[in-house]
Structures are given as C-alpha cells and as structure tokens.
Write a structure and sequence with these properties.
595 residues; mainly alpha
Length: 595
Amino acid sequence: MKFFSYIMVYRRFLLVVLTVLVLLPLPIVLHTKETECAYILFVVAIFWLTEALPLSVTALLPSLMFPMLGIMPSKKVASAYFKDFHLLLIGVICLATSIEKWNLHKRIALKMVMIVGVNPAWLTLGFMSSTAFLSMWLSNTSTAAMAMPIAEAVAQQIINAEAEVEATQMTYFNGSTNHGLEIDESVNGHETNERKEKTKPVPGCNNDTGKISSKVELEKNSGMGTKYRTKKGHMICKLMCLCIAYSSTIGGLTTITGTSTNLIFAEYFNTRYPDCRCLNFGSWFTFSFPAALIILLLSWIWLQWLFLGFNFKEMFKCGKTKTVQQKACAEVIKQEYQKLGPIRYQEIVTLVLFILMALLWFSRDPGFVPGWSALFSEYPGFATDSTVALLIGLLFFLIPAKRLTKTTPTGEIVAFDYSPLITWKEFQSFMPWDIAILVGGGFALADGCEESGLSNWIGNKLSPLGSLPVWLIILISSLMVTSLTEVASNPATITLLLPILSPLAEAIHVNPLYILIPSTLCTSFAFLLPVANPPNAIVFSYGHLKVIDMVKAGLGVNIVGVAVVMLGICTWIVPMFDLYTYPSWAPAMSNETMP
C-alpha cells in the first residue's frame, strides 16, 4: 500500500517521464520529420489533457523540442509565440480592467435585471442576458465571478421571503411566533459551514442577520436543522448557479474577443489562409450572434423547465400583484444598485471608449459597405482588429481619472499629478499571461506541423472520410470536440485540433470554414462537469449543486448547442462565406505520404 501511495504522490512526475520514454521509439525507429513532429505533438497533447505540467509550461515545449529535433530553428519558433492575437488581447484586457475597476460591469448587470422584473422566470432570463452581454467583452471567468454574488444574494432573499410568509401564516393560525421558522430566516441559512467560513455576509440583510445566522449554525451542528426550507428554494439556488455559469460561456461565443478559443481560431485561420480576408470582428458577430441568442433562449427554457417548471400562463399574466418573494427580490436588487451611487465620470469615459471600440471593430470592414479601412487603400490588410484594440487600450493609460494631491508645509492642498483610468500594475493583474503563452505554443505547434509535412500527411490519411456526407463529418468533429473539451481545457483542445481539422477539410476538398467554425464554437460547450471550465467551478463552489445536477442540465445545453450550430452552418452561415464552394484561398493538398 505504501508503494501505491508513493505512486499517487509522484504521479505527475512519473507521467511526464513515462510519456517521454514510451513514445521515444517513434522518432528513433522511423526517423523522419513527420514522425519527429508527431512525437512532439503526442507529448504535448498528453501533457495538455492530463495537466501533468501547467498548460503554459507545456506550451513552451515546442520552443525546446523543435530546434533539438531539427524541425524548426529557434528564432522561427520564438516568432510564433507573439502574434497579432496578443496585441488584440492586450487592448481588450485594457478595456476589461477599466470596466471592472470602476464597477461599470456591476451597474450594467443590475440595471438589466431591474428592467426585466422579478418574476423567477424573467429574473433568470435577466441574469442570463446581462451575464452573456458582459462576457462578450470580459473574460467568462471574471463575468461569472462578478455575477454570482449578486445572483446568490437574490436567491437568498427569495428563500427568506418564503420563510417570512410561512412564519406569518403560523403566527396567524397558532397565535404565536414559530421560533423554528424565525431561526431559519437567515441570509446565509442555506450555505454549508464551509461557505460560511469563506464568504462574507451578503449585503441587503437586516440587523439581526448575525444573531440569527449563529442560531442557525448551532442548530445545524446539532443535526436538527435543514439546509433549505423547501425544495423550491433549493431549485432556485441551483437554477441561479447554472444560469450564471452557462450564460457566461454562451455570451463569449458572439465576439472574436469573447473567449480565448475564438481568438486562437481567428489567428490560426488568418495565418494559415492569409489570402482570405473574410474573417473579422463584424463577420464573426454576424454569424455567431443569432446562434448564441438561440442557444441562450433554449437553455433558459430547458433550465427553467428542469428546475422550476415552465408555466407560460403565469409568466405572461398582466397586472398581477407581486408576491412577497418578488418584492424582497426587487428590493435587494434595488439596494445593490443604489450602493453604486450616481454614475461617475470614470464610468462614463469607460462606457464611451467601450462603445467606440465596438463601433470601430464593426465598421472596419463590414462587407456590405466600405469600412474605414478603405481610407488606407494603399496598405490593404495592414490595419486589423488589434489596431483598434491597441488604439483604445492606450487611451485608458492616457485619459485622467482623478487628480493626485498633496499637502504643502503651509497646510495647503495642491494637485501635483493625475491618475489615468488604469495603471500598468492594474493591467498586469488582469492580463492572462498564461493564456498568451498557451496560445503562442499552439501557433508554434501548428507551424511545426506545416514545416515538417505532418499536416499534409494527416490530411492525406483522413481523405477517405470524403466519402461521407459533409454534414456527418461536421457532426462527428463537433461531437468529438464537445466531448474532449469536457476533460481538457478549451484553449488546449482547440489548439490541438486545428492543425488536424484544417488538413482534413483540404483533403476532402471542403471549404475549411465549413468544418472549423462549428468545431470552434463547440469547443466552448464545456457544460457537463465542474472542472470543465472556470465558470462551472465558480458556481459549483457555492455548494448548491451536485455533479449529477450539472451533468443533467449540461447534457441538455450541450445537445441544444450542437443542434443550433449544425442548424446555423447549414442555413444562414452558408451564404456569408459561400461554404458550398471550395475557395481559391485554400491550398490543394499534395500527394506526399509518410515514409
């Protein structure tokens, strides 16, 4: 038993060593460029899937192994680690830093929830809409981390209101207060003891919350209390959690900058097919927004039906008096919004720059009319979405946010400098350098596959798939990606599969976008497990969900997502990119075979 315990302790070390040694005969015995590159690809893939090494550390392996095996010189490999994608990411993170620093994201989320109302069904739709909108521009993780505490507070208020109604009814019938009900009226009453230690009290509770929470905790520890007052209360908590997790992922589908997988695909595609200038911020939004909107609405209906039932008559009943629960829910949202105070100068400037960035992205090359990039017709293709992102990003370091003052020896307060909207230190704390390195490693891996001829070899070996209907090939690749992304990180999955799927499309003489677009979108469909992506892990940590809840709900959302993507790729996306025609910008496959 002691031997096995040692194996478990050092399992990652053993996995790294064994992977390198077990696969070593591949390049030694065959000794071709293709097999040497395949060896590196297998090693990197296993490390990414098992996370035996940190993802970004694994991403550095091509820079070490390609020069050693004579596939690419070190200078050429290094150039793959910083591309146009990284400049775009820097500009977007500047925007995200300012939005979160000045709490603009919280104001937008609360305002949207206030607009839709407090009926549970409409409330969840409000949370999903606002979270999805924010995740279009912010990272999915930070959006979920911001929205979840608000949703948690609202869910708790609904549970508390139900307890108050029951307590009032008991008092009316029995002539005295039921102290058991009074004890359970705690803002934190539904939390586990572990959550109590890790989280702060939720804003908006009354002055007796601390006292009542202590009573509840004592009662729970004695084994007499219950975690939730009613099954409906528990279902509301589950519903709120999953709405936040799934909508933060779905919203990221709509823009190139919405999630790292979209950015990785865009950079890979533009690098592999430089003559195709059809993929930009505007064209991506045009085809992905309808898909994301349909997925969001169907997911809302599925989650609502799964946890609370879907009563159309109740939802659309006009002039109905609000219940106690709805009033309590509206009150906590209103209080949270009032805490933000009136909108400040910094929020207004950030909002203006945010809108300006979006407009410049859309109008650069909209397709149906000439965009502002036509002003630089002498240098076609020079200005990209990263140009816009950097321009706006630099303004965040330049525009004053507030004056810095000091007190002179005479006691006079004078201004000596100003503070910009964001500082470099704040930007650094938000910048996902690990993702930047991971993506760079993916680009280096793709370049190595091209340079060694492995991509062509894979494409030729996959060419028999051309006998299958194209829709079936797309469905198989989409399901494969969706399954793999549940156990591997999304960026690692798309980085690993793009160099395989592109040669496949070329080998069977199909427009590469026909296969790559649905596969890229499906990479984000990691809805089944808490470990599948960070938003899932964030909501799972609140203690309301079990793994089976997420599997059951996520399976339905996965099916909805793949079905909508398949519908889109066969309908409205086809004329946008002329998907039924093999384009001139895609190369014809060579007949090279692997020795």
